[in-house]
Amino acid sequence: MNTWLCTKLAAAIVVTSAIGSAALASGTDHAQASDVDVAVVFAVDFSSSIDPATADMQRNGHAAALTSPEILKVLSSGRRGCIAVSYFEWASPSSIRSILPWTRICGPKDAEAAAGIISSTGDRGVGRRIRGGTSISSAIAVGSLLLDRFPDRADRMVIDISSNGENNAGLSVQQARAKAIDKGYTINAIAIPSREFQNPDRPLASYFAEEVIGGDQAFVMVPKALSDYTLALRHKLVTEISLKLTPNSRSQDGQPRVSIADTRLARTREGGTE
User: Fold this and answer.
1) Exposure on the CB side of residue 190, measured as CA atoms within 13 A
2) Which of 82, 114, 224, 233 gives a 20 to 30 Å CA spacing to 26?
3) Taking residues 20-43, what's their average pLDDT?
4) Average per-residue pLDDT in the chain?
5) pLDDT of residue 198
6) d(Cα 215, Cα 178) in Å, to the nearest integer?
7) Which whole-number Å values give the CA distances from 84 to 24, 25, 212, 228, 264, in the listed order?
């Protein structure tokens, strides 16, 4: 990564880290501030391809997932009973926006507070045309810097990429991925369905599986439709918190893990109607 870009990213992270230390220190009393089961960086695409409807879906989806009963249940069953999350938006290498600094979540009140910040401050798709390309490599680099500067201790550290497109700006995504994996970080992804920006030669989920995700038990979550986005986020977070996977990051045929989230199937399993 060149010196200018390192300086740009570091400047964005300094503010986030300073505020984040205070947010972590102000968490609930039943766990030490240094102890969390997992630290998760939500890296959310707000490039020119993200229209207002998709922006709302991402913003509201993350808020809804954090406060869902499924997340709160698996959170309380963790060894430490707390996680830490941060949330930033990214587009081109020069377009990075911090939304939620490092924040401990140990129960419903913490989750609701974090969700409220995301809901009120996150991208709404306004002015998207001036934000430039889709730099997944920069998203991974910023996520890595946030994890580097995480002020306390976490059993696992994860970068969560949410995007509807391939890397088309900045450095090679493979280079950024390799550096993050070398630090022991896991990169997971959620592939947003998009007909307009879909590569006809390779589904976005395949691109993410082959080029973006990596590290211990990494996986791609794919909403069956846009309406399944929040379900996909919930499934992804439950997996990341509980680590209900086999002890490797690949399926039995040796391919990276790709999971499909379908609201209709979930309702059917729960005894509802399609």
Assistant:
1) 29
2) 233
3) 64
4) 81
5) 66
6) 9
7) 8, 11, 23, 25, 31
- Reference 17, options 38, 47, 45, 41; nearest CA is 41
**Residue by residue, what is the 3-state secondary structure of the chain?**
CCHHHHHHHHHHHHHHHHHHHHHHHCCCCCCCCCEEEEEEEEEEECCCCCCHHHHHHHHHHHHHHHCCHHHHHHHHCCCCCCEEEEEEEECCCCCEEEEEEEEEECCHHHHHHHHHHHHHHCCCCCCHHHCCCCCHHHHHHHHHHHHHCCCCEEEEEEEEEEECCCCCCCCCHHHHHHHHHHCCCEEEEEECCCCCCCCCCCCHHHHHHHHHCECCCCEEEEECCHHHHHHHHHHHHHHHHHCCCCCCCECCCCCEEEEEECHHHHHHHCCCCC
In this structure, are residues 30 and 106 in contact, taking their beta carbons and an 8 Å threshold? Answer: yes
Q: Which residues pair with 10 in a beta bridge?
A: none
> How far apart are the C-alpha atoms of 52 and 229, rounded to whole Å?
15
pLDDT(48) > 70? yes
Domain boundaries, the chain: 3-269
Q: How many CB atoms lie within 10 A of CB 76?
A: 12
Architecture of domain 3-269: 3-Layer(aba) Sandwich (3.40)
Contact present, 89 and 123 (Cβ < 8 Å): yes
